Amino acid sequence: MSQVPAATRALRVLRFLAAQPDPVTLDRLAAEVGLPRSTAYHLVNTMIEEGFVVHLPEEHRYGLGVAAFEVGSGYARQAPLQRLARRQLASLVDAVGQSAHLAVLHGRDVLYVLEERAPGRPPLVSDVGVRLPAHLTASGRAVMAELPPPQVRALYPDRTAFVDRHGAGPQSLSALRSLLSETRQRGWAAEHGEVTPGFASVAAAVLDHNGHPAAGVAVTWPEDAGADEPELARAAQRTAAWLTRRIGGSGRPVGRTTEAT
After folding, report:
1. Which Gene3D superfamilies does the entry link to (predicted)?
2. What percent of the chain has pLDDT over 90?
3. Which fold has domain 79-260?
4. Which of 28, 89, 109, 143 has the greatest number of CB atoms lying within 10 Å of its CB?
């Protein structure tokens, strides 16, 4: 326990409520957070007064309040993941000599939020602000491999959801599921010429404290560059694992190869 136990308890309540799909009863909250019921009652009432918790008396349940939403909105505005990743991406590029980027899932697309281009390498389509079909990109595959199967199914309800760029890549849910299963077993995603002919990418997912994929770290290179794909993948994994730890998440073992699975 920290030197400020009340603050620790309040943060545990917030973290627990944030991870729930619906408001919960006081008894469940107290049990999950590890507090006596009376202590939990007084704590949540203080948090209600400050706007971080809301009480739904008709349902006898408690959920997140508006102040918690304001904190989350502030987090999004400050873009800490991008700030944390900028120097790490630069180090990744220096280490492997290839371009790297950070992308987040946005519907069925990935949105590129950071890019570090290696000196002397050609420009890529994955510039900051660009969206590309997630199922064709290594970043998108790395992220979707960590999503619950029903969420992936909701994103791709039928074949019309699969955009075709160059006649390559999965064009059905079953094909995508197979690809994502391989990605999970291997620990990193790959694509070869499906976004841009002649270029390949590998990527690893950054996970938040709930184990939810927050972003994908990818390395892209010309396929004729003779690059060592597994080594580039391990470098992307190390960067993703570092970011996972910095945002309070816990990820896969770093450096796991196809042969080790």
Report:
1. 3.30.450.40, Winged helix-like DNA-binding domain superfamily/Winged helix DNA-binding domain (1.10.10.10)
2. 62
3. Beta-Lactamase (3.30.450)
4. 143
